[in-house]
Specification:
Bound molecules: adenosine monophosphate, fe (iii) ion, zinc ion
Number of helices: 10
Number of strands: 8
Distance between the termini: 15 Å
Shape: globular
Helix content: 25-40%
Order of helices and strands: EHEHEEHHHHEHEHEHEH
Largest sheet: 8 strands, mixed
Radius of gyration: 18 Å
Length: about 290
């Protein structure tokens, strides 16, 4: 069984439509794929309609969250995967809408600051490219590449869009403890995404993961392209101590990132634990 539980489509910052993503998953020999776009469920129906026979699709999302350190230090950006929640749950739906509005306002501020300093990015082009979906820094990066301001998306992230850049604007993301509660209240399964990926920036300590477990976290994403072997080993130990299941996934973004779909996989017995815990929606399957 080949199981990849974290992928993005063009309704957020991937480059393939949900239908194309289903084809890619099947061609790569996956048996199970989860669609986990940032802060939106807009791809669910499209993926369900395009699902090839033999492929099981787990509807999900990656929620933009923050951990507030107990010592009052600066909040740490964290990503929470949520699977099989009820998309109609009012409390969770309202928070997703707030996050998408927040993304839009923040992207517009980044673009205005870049433009004011003579970096050619066109807000109208970004709005068109996002195609009604969620907007993020990858969209701004593409616009910077198209305008010739940088030579690659990677370069844009390493310079003008880096979190230490003067143009960077943070988002007011959800407190991760409330995020976990919202996911559980909607019958969903919360899993901490790439929790120790130090290559992405600051990460949380074990105290945060313990507190998240107290709030209802059920799993840890361990095998992720951005995790080093020592980071994986630490997370695996924590999961065993805290009674959490573990997942592996590619975090596929099409051509916006170098990783292939299926590059990291989840064990079947761990998927079973996830499926058993989700009561808000059912997987799409034969
Ligand atoms: P945002 O959510 O708007 O802050 O943008 C962060 C998103 O950018 C994440 O979802 C990453 O998948 C993506 N990202 C981060 N670094 C890179 C990179 N070097 N190239 C392409 N995408 C990236
Ligand atoms: Fe992304
Ligand atoms: Fe993420
Ligand atoms: Zn992701």
């Amino acid at each position: 069984m080949r199981i990849d539980l974290h992928t993005h489509s063009s309704v957020s910052d991937g480059t393939e439509s949900p239908a194309e993503l289903m084809d890619t998953a099947r061609s790569a020999g996956l048996d199970v794929v989860a669609l986990t776009d940032h802060d939106t469920t807009a791809g669910w129906a499209l993926a369900e309609a395009a699902r090839p026979a033999g492929l099981t699709v787990v509807p999900g999302m990656e929620m933009s969250c923050r951990w507030f350190p107990v010592d009052g230090g600066r909040p740490v950006s964290v990503h929470l995967l949520a699977y099989l929640f009820d998309p109609a749950d009012a409390g969770f739906a309202a928070e997703r809408l707030r996050l998408r509005d927040e993304r839009l306002a923040r992207a517009e501020r980044i673009v205005a600051a870049l433009a004011a300093d003579g970096h050619p990015v066109d807000w109208a082009q970004i709005l068109e490219a996002r195609n009604g979906g969620v907007v993020g820094r990858p969209h701004i990066a593409r616009a910077l590449v198209d305008a010739g301001a940088v030579d690659s998306v990677d370069h844009a992230f390493a310079t003008l869009l880096h979190h230490t850049s003067p143009y960077y604007v943070p988002k007011a993301d959800t407190d991760v403890l409330s995020g976990i509660a919202l996911v559980r209240a909607a019958g969903g399964v919360p899993v901490f995404a790439h929790g120790l990926a130090t290559k992405r920036g600051r990460v949380v300590g074990d105290d945060a993961i313990t507190a998240m477990t107290g709030a209802g976290l059920l799993g840890l994403e361990v095998d992720h392209p951005d995790h080093r072997p020592d980071e994986r080993a630490h997370l695996r130990g924590l999961a065993a101590d805290l009674g959490l299941f573990v997942t592996g996934a590619s975090d596929y973004h099409g051509t916006n990132k170098g990783t292939s779909i299926g590059a990291e996989l989840t064990a079947p017995d761990q998927l079973d634990l996830l499926l058993a815990a989700g009561t808000g929606a059912a997987p799409y399957r034969d």
